[in-house]
Amino acid sequence: MYMYEHLVVFRFNDQYEPSREEGLLSTLRALKGQIPGIADLTAGVNVTEETENIHGYTLGLRVTFEDQEALRQYGPHPAHQRFVSMLEGIIENVVVVDYPILP
């Protein structure tokens, strides 16, 4: 059984106000204590110096799950869905990458 990594980057639209950033990050960081199966979680603002590669993605999330089933349970979990509802009207695009952490 493998742990799973869940990577997400967010690109916001013109309706997004940077003043909302801390609220979004706080909500994301709190998921670790609210959703079973999360082994580790980090979230933050994109500060890469590779500006040609940002493509408008300004917020990142990395969640390590205990197993694939925990990853599956994460999406529909009410705490995750509350975060998703915070994105309504401000999100332009999201990229998600999930992969097993192989030994």
TrEMBL record:
PROSITE patterns, per the entry: S_R_A_B_BARREL
Occurrences of domain Stress-response A/B barrel (ranges): 4-99
Family annotation (InterPro entries): Dabb, Dimeric_a/b-barrel, HS1/DABB1-like
Entry-linked SUPFAM superfamilies: Dimeric alpha+beta barrel (SSF54909)
Oligomeric and partner information: Homodimer.
Protein name: Dabb family protein
